[in-house]
Amino acid sequence: MTNDSKSFEIDYWTKSIAQFRIQSALLTRADNPQHLSKNPIPIIGTLTLQGVIVNKKKILILDAGTVYKPMNTTGWLNHHNRDLALKTLSDLGHECTTTMIDSDWDIDEEVEKIKKTDVIIVQTPIWWMAPPWTMKKYEDQVMSVNGVDGTDGRHRLTPEDGYGTGGILTKKYFMLSTTWNAPKGAFRPGDFFDGRDEDNVQISIVKVFEFLGMHPLPSYMYNDVLKNPDLVSNDANWVA
Fold this sequence. Notes:
disordered N terminus, alpha/beta, 7 helices
């Protein structure tokens, strides 16, 4: 690929959406083929794939890498993945902003960031099967503000129906990028997570964004970061 043409010769029909990750996962066919029409992927890049038109987008990266001495963690790996995503997406022409979750962010400023963005990427470690408490604080304090939060979607005449359908961020998308001590083998049927994928294990954070009306993009998972880390493969897979 050259910087001038920014085009790929790719057999789009034989590649899984999940393989495209940052540069090319976030795409939609210009002619909206039938097999993608029920689950459209947003146009987000500044490149041209075979039969695909892509536009620049505003992207907010929420970096939940957290310093916690009892767990001997500094958050460096998630900061690394954030920086890699930031460079890759900026080089493609997107307008990127970041928030360090483990910092003194301002609620009003974060609300404005979310209002203006097209895509939110959550870069987070998984501790005890969930993101750190710092991410939960951000969700509680920022995502409950008017302009981000809508309603729960229900009506008093039919209170059992429609829960989770009142989100107002319906033109926005989110993506999870997570780091795990758990190896990929832990997600096999009969193993610890018993065949569940990362989104099913992290259903609470997925549903936070869906409650706001946002749509999911393919997730990324970096496994076995303590006993069998492979940063080279991680970097290649994250931007592949």
